Amino acid sequence: MYILYWIKNASFFRQILTITSVSSFLSLLSAIGTILLVRSLTLSDYGRYSIILAYIQFAGPLGTLGQSKLLRTIYSIQGGIGQNWYADMSMGLLINFPVYILSLVILPFIGIDSPFLIFLAGVLMISFGILHYITGILDSNKNFINGSILIRLPFVLMNIPALIMLLSHKYAIIQLLIFLLVFEIIAIIIGISIIFKTPKVDIKRQIKPSRLKAISYSIQLFLHLLPNQGMIILSARLFDAHTVGIYSALWTLFRPFWILHDSTTRISSVEFAHKDKKQVGGIFHRYNLIFLIIGICSLVLYPIITDLVYGNKFAGFHSLLYWMILVNTLLLFDSLPNAYLSMRLFAIRIFGFTSCLIIGGFAGVGISIFSYENLGLSAIVFGTLTIILSRVLTVYYFSIRDIKNQ
Question: Which residues have CB under 8 Å from 267's CB, separation 6+?
Fold first, then answer.
């Protein structure tokens, strides 16, 4: 009863519930498009499409070198979007551009060797990086709904070509990617127009973090993307496109977990910037209980959902599905301490924190590489489990330690 009373009277919870509801609706629409693609494409073709999509979503934000997250943090602490946001974003993109070009060399090593596909993937990656900047700027001013819609809008609109393909029985990956590029440009235009209409703040005192702390943002972002898009890219290197299609189709079903994690992190990162640190520990405990209940319910629901949306095509992968449920439940426990530390990154010991994350990331990738011949797709899941578990332990250790030192 106490939990129900707290939920009813917690404005913080209502913010998370609101943005999660909006994001869940958008993700449901996007998931419908994914289901249509899985049903209309062969698993090999869906695997190739998933590889390019994972690369775009991985290299686009990562290519910002943590600048987009750094910008969001500074604007959040200063109380709003800075008047020079356009110059800040443009300077960041200018620095990021060589990184984007260099990242294209990855594609031939994961089965994408067509020059036109490589070019198209590069353009998509840069446009998604711009969209990542815009979303971060909006979030800094508590425009969570706008940011949540924008980052998912291109993938929601992909329902249109997916439905056309299913009805016409004609498909081509290039056409799908061109549609996605058009939808990304639409989202960018909408986002910029919203920022122009949002009141700006005259930032008189600039925060100038050290280079080590800026690098730490990049490493954190890499390790944040590694369990999702990063492991799909790794599976493309280890397995054929058909196997990647199976893994990607199952992993996509866990979007509700990612949305809840993303919504909680984005809202609480701004809330914690203005909150008494003594209240943070209590918030952690209450939300962890909710996350545990979600995980237990998922053990019953997800096998049913998988058979319902995909048919009998994945009936033999229920044991793999249970491990994925464990991984994604652990991911939820990362959200609040991760958000807290993003606001305290100028105060905590960056070297030790980042080192722990790197060790966990390398351990997870190593487990997958050295065991895939014996374990198959389970090796990718166990590697992901290692990364998430090490990340949860790290963020909790450093956040609790920082809270006690207040």
Answer: 12, 15, 16, 19, 144, 339
